[in-house]
Amino acid sequence: MRAPAPDAQAASVDVLIRGAGPVGCTAALALRQAGLSVAVVDPQAASPAPRGDLRAAFAPAFRPAFRPIALSYASRLILERLGVWPDISATPIVRILVSQASSFGRTRLDAADAGVPALGYVTQYADLVAALRAPLGDLLLGDAPQARCIVHAEGAPADVPGKRYAQDALVALVATDAPAAETAFERFTAEGPLALLPMGARHALIWSARPERARELAALGDDAFLAELRRLAPRAVGRPVAVESRVVQPLMLKVRSARVSGNEVYIGNAAQTLHPVAGQGLNLGLRDAWELARTLARAADPGDGAVLARFAAARRIDAGATVRITDLLAAGFADSSALLGAARGAALTALDIFPPARRFFARRMIYGAQALP
Length: 373
Prior knowledge:
Order of helices and strands: EHEHEHEEEHEHEEEEEEHHEEEEHHHH
CATH architecture of the largest domain: 3-Layer(bba) Sandwich
Oligomer: single chain
Strand order of the largest sheet: 6-5-11-12-13-10-14-17
CATH topology of the largest domain: FAD/NAD(P)-binding domain
Mean pLDDT: 86
Distance between the termini: 43 Å
Largest sheet: 8 strands, mixed
């Protein structure tokens, strides 16, 4: 049985956040900015950290394998409002070219069409976490204090059943014979979606394939791997000439049936874990964090079940639509049948012909449900 929520006098903070990744840290900064007292449970903070440059103190513990992150323009706005965007080194995506390997159909999404300076930005996960953690200081705790409201942002839940995609994602850093510009490439292939995102002068590669194929690609020598990539990559990206930091990640869809229980609320991957196609998972989680802070800022008691229920209801359309479109895109990318390939080609061609449709799709990917008419 769940313990009752502590009363206002017993609680030492308004909100306790479990999880010190990007979503948890964003929630902490937004809640503190809204005037609430906050603590973040972080095992890395169990030992006292030296004062001074907190980014340097924490970054080594949060330097995982190469992990590129695509942030939408809406996520940039959130990070700007929290004052951390200037500390994040990110490469803008001004245009996205979507195409099919060995088949017709292509479209181009431009930032200007969507009315934004960039469709998104590419950065390293570790750099994003370091920038978000640095201003939190003493809010990062090893032990959990009493709190009126508990926010779960620990990542994908082990206790929630999920849908295992018939693909894994191979992630790598790729150099081409010409420096990367501000263009991202999304490619439909018979093996699965292949994305090449500009990251400085190089490209972050996210290549989805059957699990055994992904492991095979990861084990190939550099020359053999580059030959396989050249076979499928669009010509416009240039000729891949070097690769490093290859790692394989399993892909799953997990959606928690209820994101509120008593005085506890789930956000980010703790609420919904998505396929990486179109790069929506983290951006949806950052919108969760921002909207939660806005909701709790207006509440007399941040742990009030009715308040948290209103937050859950407000997030239902954005989260539900993003889950559905991501799952649909993942299925569409994975199916190599000629019939579906023709349907994809027709859809891409139609999108390319009608600018209003391109604008709507781009803004939907940037802003979530706010882009809906």
